[in-house]
Fold each of these.
Amino acid sequence: MECSTPGSVAQCLNDVLARIDAARRKAGRPPGCVRLVAATKNVPPSRIEVAIEAGLSIVGENRVQEAMSKMAVLKDRPVRWHYIGQLQRRKVRSIMGLFELIHSVDSVELAEELDRRAIQPGAPQDVLLEVNVGGEATKAGFEPEGLLGAMPALAALPHIRIRGLMTVPPLSAEPEASRPHFRHLRRLAQAIAGLNLPRVSMQELSMGMSNDFEVAIEEGATMVRIGTAIFGARHA
Ligand SMILES: *Cc1c(COP(=O)(O)O)cnc(C)c1O
């Protein structure tokens, strides 16, 4: 379907939700176990608003400034904000308390900064650890080989709560090419869960985008991050 015209957002959203549910059923997983996070970078608030009215409940933003200006416009809307982009340490202070979940914690240093700047007293900041499963030199994220070793230091940070893992696999036109990477992420989460560390749960696997989310759901995704299939191609 053409998803780039203003009137198409609701229809494309419903199409994506139906595909998520079909993949979930096909995988034999229970209802409600896969949540949609709409990736809204470069999407103006007016179009996000249409999606919210059509039933979207979580938006994921990639840039701090862009997110904050959209939050101001959409402040009365019943939507939850996630942060899915690369986060610079010097921006951490300005975002504390704004995001229900940060998907993209990609280093111990960033985790430490989040812990240091957390609003106290208050609920800990929920985060996911981003893993560079493809081992790409240009991509952010923990190296899969090093993550288990880093877990005790991460678990020792009292003001963040690690809820699971996130990945962006190498770009490919072929959805099946992502499957081994998604599987790798799931196995890594199982290994981390086996460490039984405090404040660490591995309930969430944030994986799957427009071109490969059905494969991700088959491999255990609990959150899929989808932009293009809802809002059309980005004209950055
Ligand atoms: C843009 C983006 C997505 C969504 O990508 P699409 O291919 O448009 O669905 C998912 N995750 C992250 C981190 C992104 O930056």
Note: The two ends are 21 Å apart (CA to CA).
Amino acid sequence: MQNIKTNLTNLLTQIRACEQEFHRPANSVALLAVSKQQPIEKIQQAIAAGQRCFGESYLQEALPKILALANESIEWHFIGPLQSNKTKKIAEYFQWVHSVDSLRMAKRLNNQRPAHLPPLNICLEINVSAENTKKGVKSEDVFSLIDYCLTLPNLKLRGLMAIPLPQKTFESQCLEFQKLTSLYKNIQERGVMLDTLSMGMSNDWQAAIAAGANLLRIGTGVFGKRNHTSVAHPE
Ligand SMILES: *Cc1c(COP(=O)(O)O)cnc(C)c1O
């Protein structure tokens, strides 16, 4: 049985130590607890331990959790792949989406964000290891997507997100993350206000902090191993 409170306490202590080690300002790195494929009881334990931000990748799995925990003052971040038939509910039930990677998805989320809610916070998912996947915006397409997102009143562009290919060494992990950091700085230098650099997971978050991350997305390191069998994967 995982003790979520102990995991969280230890992880936050390590994150603060890592900030110091890499000369990052104290408390500049926040933790998104990735609760996908984890039971609601573990999320409740994390809430009791003071965790406020949770990440989910699959809408069907997330919705019952969001509804059951509707009375808690917590924040839900959608971090999974976007599909057009899911954007409406995502725009209604989440406060953040980290995985915006096309004009089309940005437009759908903007149009489907309910008028009574504040703008949906978004990060653009960048394809930093370009040779590998189709997921994520390619660096050359980033600026046109940013310009477009800035015209959408129901979206609030907050930053960038990436899931680099797994690397063997700390140094090569840093190199991948630094690609995202330099793009982030480049965009800021052009006068676009960004405050969120979402990178680093259970196996590489130290390198992400060294490279400048300010929002880590950690699942296993908080909740233990995911239960793949209990979750139906519709996608
Ligand atoms: C699952 C997932 C995570 C968390 O992964 P861990 O290795 O369990 O920390 C982070 N980001 C995204 C996009 C994920 O899908």
Note: The longest strand covers residues 155-161.
